[in-house]
């Protein structure tokens, strides 16, 4: 095989590009644009947003917009099924499937003789939004991803450890990149009545495992003088959104902005917060966390290994509301310590580089085509891991 020739590469299983929603979409956009700039033909399967399809091309990537059933339990799989059907008529050299939930469709991709790697993400079965049936489905899907993928991609050391322990399965570890937000302007903050260094920030989808309610409740219980700005919302999460609003109560210091899709404004919010409070606990290496450290913003994170892998000793950690209250008060009282933490995190962000991530995906795509990959594993573990086997909370 000619390891220099351009490849055609399909990216399947996400909401697609432009990236508006979460980590997978960010990864597809940042990796796909770089692969396209290197001459590869990158096809991204997309879902429409509010009835509006993605453009035919975005940052050099070809976009194929297909419908999906608008039900939480069926949206991802229904869209991926249509995407795989389209792939059958427009085969590519290799495919990356994002989300182990799509594993039941991997045999179809393999039947097309398209080598496929599955990006397995975090521990989806631990998300509170899933019922017992949903959790069992996701646990089973992990097994099927191991069984039917030519290769697995993990975006965090904790995910790689999990698949090694539970399945004895090797993974290609490719973390996300951290954007550099050094020297970014602050002129847009005035639109929200904010000043640089004059607020604490939460950015998260409103789901229990992201601990937005904990962050808000802890802040409300604190004596912090600076406001807490909360960016986020979520489809299918009305009950949890109501809990977040209840935690905020009528405290005038809490600013619930909802979703902010203006990338320039969002970057300025990250870059000029005194602290970023990060509650994500199950999703591997989180792009929002990387965005914060790329901005050089002091970070208070929920205490699990995924977050410690990124922040190390430069981060501050919380397990409950009292910890959040303590950390926001400490930050306001000791801005010199905040500045030291911020500088250390900015240095750690250099380890998360999208160009190197794209290098890894390009190598993996060539290895898939050349069959230099582990291949499907016909035997796999079937027992669900104990909580302590998955993410070691401190």
UniProtKB/TrEMBL annotation:
Keyword annotations of the record: Glycosyltransferase, Transferase
Record has Kinase as a keyword: no
Pfam family for this entry, one: Glyco_trans_1_4
Keyword set includes Transferase: yes
Gene3D superfamilies per record: Glycogen Phosphorylase B
InterPro entries in UniProt: Glyco_trans_4-like_N (IPR028098)
Domain spans labelled Glycosyltransferase subfamily 4-like N-terminal: 22-173
Protein name as it appears in the record: DUF1972 domain-containing protein
Organism classification: Bacteria, Bacillati, Actinomycetota, Actinomycetes, Micrococcales
